[in-house]
Every structure is written in C-alpha cells, then in structure tokens.
C-alpha cells in the first residue's frame, strides 16, 4: 500500500483525485496540500511514496517542487496531474514517473500507480520507534502498544485512542496516525475514524445502506464512509 500526497490548489480537484486513488485499493494513506509551501511542511513531518502534483499553482509551481524533490537522496515518485500538456518535457526532465491530464481517467491513473509501484518500495517507518504510541492519561505520558489499539477517533483538536478497556487522548492528528500506522494494519474508514483491521469482527449493512464495523471488545459500531467501502473490502479480502 502506497503513501500518497496530492498537491493542488483547487479543492474539488484534490477531492476527485482522492476519490479515484481510494478506489484503486493500492493507496494506504493520502495527505493533501493546497500549495508547494504546505506540501514541503507536510513532507518534513511524514515521508510519502508518491506525490501527485499539479503544475500551475499560485506562488511556487509544481515543477519547482519536483525539482527540489529530485535533488533529495531518496525522493518520492512524482506523478504530474495537470490540465496543460505543454509542460510534459520539463516534467520528465525532473524524472517524473508519469504525466496525467485532467480530468483523470481511471485506467490512466491505475497505469501510473503501476509505474510507481515498479519504481519505489513503499517506505516503512522504523517499527521499533512506533511499536508504542505516547498518549496523555491523568496528566501522565503513557505508552500504548500498537497492537492493543482497537480504533482511533478524531474529537475536536485531539485524537481519542480506544483500547479493549480504556481510552486515551493524543494531540497527534488522525492524518498523522494514518500515515504512521498504515504498515501496522490500520485503515482510515471515515474522516473521523481509523480502525485496526485485525480487530474487525464483522461488517454490517444497515437498513439505510450505510456500512458499519463491529470491533473486538468494543460496544460501539464504527461507520464507514461510502467512498471507503470498496478499498476497505479489498483490504479485508471481502
């Protein structure tokens, strides 16, 4: 499962590309940036395997970001996603994996992901450094083993981590948890929820058509957003 970043100043374009990427079942986590500057800030905190990059944006251009990434020792793959065809030569000068035209076609996107997978090995965090997650409990820092976490829920400015018999607060965002825990079998099923796939006991379709998950030793059922149903079923081999 690849870790991806979408860099595009237009929110509808980011949303559409995110939807298409999620449908492939080959993307483990997706970060979004609306500018080159915000993309650089995110990349300093979380490594990714591939950047889906628009070219024409206010301020620094996508080509400038690609040039900077190309100079790194272990750069992420770059796939340009643009409405203009006249930058293709420049794009491949910075070793871009592919050049997609908007609106993006599913078949072309899948082809591009195949090229990315052929070039890069999905990055893995040093597992020894994140086998336990630091959280707040009663004014103390507590270290929770990752395999004890059932699910994580976004709540106001915090993330609420649920284990079999307790819950904890963390200032780490859900997006950061999604990036850090992807290699440990955690999956973003909803904008507010990440679940430990190893703890999913059942998948239920409610009368309304909504999908909910039953989690081991947890009374509450976890909602699954419609756009995450297909990649979730692929992740669970359903």
UniProtKB/TrEMBL annotation:
What protein does this entry describe?
Answer: Response regulator transcription factor
* Top-level taxon in the UniProt lineage: Bacteria
Q: Domain HTH LytTR-type spans what residues?
A: 133-238
Residues bearing PTM 4-aspartylphosphate: 54
Q: Which UniProt keywords apply?
A: Phosphoprotein
Asked if the keyword DNA repair belongs to this entry, the reply reads no
Gene Ontology terms for molecular function:
DNA binding; phosphorelay response regulator activity
Domain Response regulatory, first and last residues per copy: 3-117
Q: Which SMART domains match?
A: LytTR, REC
Q: Which InterPro entries match?
A: CheY-like_superfamily (IPR011006), LytR-like (IPR046947), LytTR_DNA-bd_dom (IPR007492), Sig_transdc_resp-reg_receiver (IPR001789)
- Species per Swiss-Prot/TrEMBL record: Collinsella acetigenes
One Pfam family per UniProt: Response_reg
**PROSITE patterns (UniProt xref):** HTH_LYTTR (PS50930), RESPONSE_REGULATORY (PS50110)
């Amino acid at each position: 499962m690849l870790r991806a970043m979408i860099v595009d100043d237009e929110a509808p374009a980011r949303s559409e590309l995110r939807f298409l990427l999620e449908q492939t079942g080959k993307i483990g986590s997706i970060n979004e940036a609306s500018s080159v500057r915000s993309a650089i800030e995110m990349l300093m905190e979380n490594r990714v395997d591939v950047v889906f990059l628009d070219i024409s944006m206010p301020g620094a251009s996508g080509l400038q970001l690609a040039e900077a990434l190309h100079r790194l020792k272990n750069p992420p793959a770059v796939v340009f996603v643009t409405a203009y065809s006249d930058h293709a030569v420049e794009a491949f000068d910075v070793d871009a994996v592919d050049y997609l035209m908007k609106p993006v076609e599913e078949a072309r996107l899948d082809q591009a992901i195949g090229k990315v997978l052929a070039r890069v090995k999905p990055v893995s965090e040093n597992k020894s450094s994140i086998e336990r997650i630091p959280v707040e409990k009663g004014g103390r820092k507590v270290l929770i083993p990752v395999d004890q976490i059932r699910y994580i829920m976004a709540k106001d400015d915090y993330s609420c981590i649920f284990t079999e018999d307790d819950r904890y607060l963390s200032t780490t965002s859900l997006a950061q948890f999604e990036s850090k825990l992807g290699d440990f079998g955690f999956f973003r099923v909803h904008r507010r929820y990440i679940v430990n796939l190893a703890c999913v006991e059942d998948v239920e379709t409610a009368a309304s058509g909504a999908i909910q998950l039953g989690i081991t030793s947890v009374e509450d059922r976890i909602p699954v957003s419609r756009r995450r149903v297909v990649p979730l079923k692929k992740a669970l081999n359903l």
